[in-house]
Amino acid sequence: MNDKLIDAHGLSKSYSGTPALRGLDLAVPRGSICGFLGRNGAGKTTTLKLLLGMLRPDAGEIRLFGEAVDAEASSIAARRRIGFVSEDKELYPFMSVGQTIRFTRAFFPGWRRDLEEKYLELFQLPLGKAVRKLSKGMRTQLMLLLAMARGAELLMMDEPTSGLDPAMTEDILRALADLAASGGTTIFFSSHQLAEVEQICDRVCIIDEGQAVIDGELDELKSQYRRILLTFDGEPPNALAGLAGIDHLRQRGRTASLLAHGNVDAMVDRVRELKPSSIEVRSVSLKELFLDHVRGE
Amino acid sequence: MNLRINFSSGVPIYLQLIEQIKHAVETGAIRSGEQLPTIRSVAEELTMNPNTVARAYRELERESIVEVRHGSGVFVAGPQSSTTKTAEIRKAGEVLRTAMEKGMALDLSKSELRRVFEDELSRLQEKAAATRRRT
Predict the structure, then answer these.
(1) What is the ipTM of this complex?
(2) Domain ranges in chain A?
């Protein structure tokens, strides 16, 4: 469990002088399902393209399956073990489902017929139907099938459920849970849907302005982070802003809201010295963590 | 056993699973010697992460609530003495009633009382989990 399938350090990438990534660190351990979150333009798609070898970083190092992938040979070897489901679900529209599968199968000597049949049955894909006539959800399912049947150990997806209805989203998520449970497939996907990330992922990485602001196990993050809500008799004291170990502070009238992690008990003790009239400590959801970290207020 | 997870809550998911399975054992919804569903079937049933289910099972094994029989599955561990359990639940109920009466005397509403209770409970769970992690 401790080996990292994706291990990136200090990734930087600029497009004609505009930085998209500014020293991104990212680690995805084997067997995990990692959700990759960030606002539009935060650098998610650039990161995926760098990991897939479609772009080269200006600086930084990428290791996939424990090997550096800067040389062409090692890059090709590693990327053969990766399945990718792109956001636009690019397929040949004139081919039927069956033709698409046969066409793709021909490129991969390690093609898994058992997985092909399993996902055909699970997704109930119509073999004779032209790809252009498939719904967006079915196209996603077909791409998942193609990625998995080639025996990918690492599956990367760019917003796999965007534009899908809730039932189809649930089907995709269930397929991911099944992949992780039965084959130990490692999954890394970008998303705007916090709800699906907290449902299916055991890890999250939140990226903002080209840097990872959170990267860790979801349940650990929930254990570590706390919101401390304070009410004062008058204006909250200025000393509040100077407290060490606060991730985020928001003040409104006589109330203040702190986001803290680590030793929250010690933090509460320090806050108590500022004599608030009430202190409340609450657990923090992924949504709150995300908003507090990417809003940059 | 009827498992239900609130994914958007701030309470770690593996802790939610642990609590519900413990509750199922305490209420007799699942009895000692009976088999728990496999990690994979829980993950598929609830559409959740299998590693998280595995973590909950590992913690339950460490607390001797369940035992892993290799090759055959996860089973609820040895006999729970149900009479002492009932007595303990009754005693806890009395203590809580006193506390809640005090809260009501302070003019706390039902939902405020519930929140206090839930907060304290999750704090205790986390403390227990932190202690387990350290040992």
Answers:
(1) 0.86
(2) 4-209, 221-294
